Amino acid sequence: MQPVSSVGIVAPQTAYFDAPLTLKSGVVLPHYDLVYETYGALNAARSNAILVCHALSGNHHVAGKYAEDDKNPGWWDNMVGPGKPIDTDRFFVIGLNNLGGCHGSTGPASIDPATGQPFGSRFPLVTVEDWVESQARLADRLGIAQFAAIMGGSLGGMQALHWSIHYPARVRHCLVIASAPKLTAQNIAFNDVARQAILTDPEFHGGDFYARNTRPRRGLRLARMLGHITYLSDDVMGTKFGRVLRSGVFNYGYDVEFEIESYLRYQGDKFAEHFDANTYLLMTKALDYFDPTHHHAQPSLAAALAPATADFLVLSFTSDWRFAPERSREIVKALLDNARRVSYAEITSGHGHDAFLMPDAHYHAVMRAYMERVST
Amino acid sequence: MTRHDFQTIAHWIKPAARVLDLGCGDGALLRYLQDERQITGYGVELTDANILASVKNGVNVIQSDLETGLSVFESGSFDCVILSQTLQAMRHTEPILREMLRVGREGIVTFPNFGYWKNRLQVLRGHMPVSDDIPYQWYDTPNVHLCTMHDFEALCAQLGIRIRERVVMTAGRQVSYLQNLTGSLAVYRFESAAG
Questions:
Q1: Which of A28, A240, B91, B138 could form a disulfide with B128 if both were Cys (CB 3.0 to 4.6 A apart)?
Q2: B113 Cβ contact partners less than 8 Å away, ≥ 6 residues apart
Q3: Given A344, A348, A362, which is nearest B52 (Cβ)?
Q4: For residue A2, what pLDDT is reported?
């Protein structure tokens, strides 16, 4: 085994696209930027590229740091790097910020050249299908006709799945992690409560809060707090926080008393400071809309996945109730019905949905073992 | 499992067949069948260690509990379903045999023959048998349904299962006389009697 280390200091790049992109909603985006990072080197045959698709609040900064003293490495730094399960000594890894994001790619906070003002409420809703289309254009730009693998967790897994259906010839391996073929009513319900928190915040101003020099912090904070609850398991919350009181005694008031309250408020505040409310709304809608069976006469997942030719690795986590193992098994079943090459592992973890970001030894061993069979 | 068992099973499997290996362990048999018979298919395993080993072996493996059935697999989707050295460790013996012939045209089962004379001798001496094919102490064994070849064949008759072929081995060599007495490991190939 090679020594495990970091990809080191990285820097994002920006690709500008001036070919109009017709979105699934019918709206046309005349031009846009995509911000991305790459790790490792593209080989001469251009056959060792991996695309990492991000989840709800993720971005292009998958691995590495921006400075030596950067305390926050990329969101999947434990998975991607030299000698890591996604080995950048073998693979050329691409992470990008999806359209509508708030980390540099064109999104609601970007300036609309037509008005000179931020898009705000005028930014169109984008879908998983739109993201895949824009990712394919980035792949064209980078000269990648076919990816060795496309992967993602949660909403990222949905993008990987759509790639396998829509561009089967461009995906050799598809890794769908802690994901689902479509959201359940319960999942959509959680998303809508989060959206309502933002939409009803007086500082939201219908999405055009930028010009007013404010942001809907309270709404975004509530949305994130709710999200956080659903990403963790009851067990991990119990173990981590239990009923521990910050001051040790009841204060008979509404200030922070329990450690879990402190944790959630801290996470909510942190998120509300740096994330864009319109992006959050749009990402949750993309989740809600995704359904590969939507335009099929017979809405069976097996029929929807019939065009896929990639080899698949599907992973789920036992305590993930937001994207439960049963949902991953639906994907597996549909792939089995199509006689596709697929492996499925249900990783034992107490970390809930967040487990896909955690450095669990068995999870990483399975990823490593699978990636070792992915040819470059 | 030894190379001999692999060869016996491979002999019964057509080239490029679709194979399901239930309780595939580290995936070695599937790997062997992929290399020797160019089969396609899947292994089913429960334990994390075997899932990892199977992925390392380059076979498709699905983490699932056989006791809950094979509902993830459609009827008639395999040429052959293998249950190797696993039947004796299953609680739901009849359901898994039925499921094998629902999802596959043919089944192959291997199990340690409790009727093997060395096993009988140990029982006669007053102890539960411990041998190469039953390598566990009674208090620490996954085996809950050990049987003799006669027992297995009687169950097949009862379930409408027709035995097509039978190979019996001891220490990797085939035995042909008084098999229920001289054989340590039984390997059966069967199909539904209803056709």
A1: B138
A2: B119, B133, B148, B149, B168, B179, B180, B183, B184, B185, B186
A3: A362
A4: 43
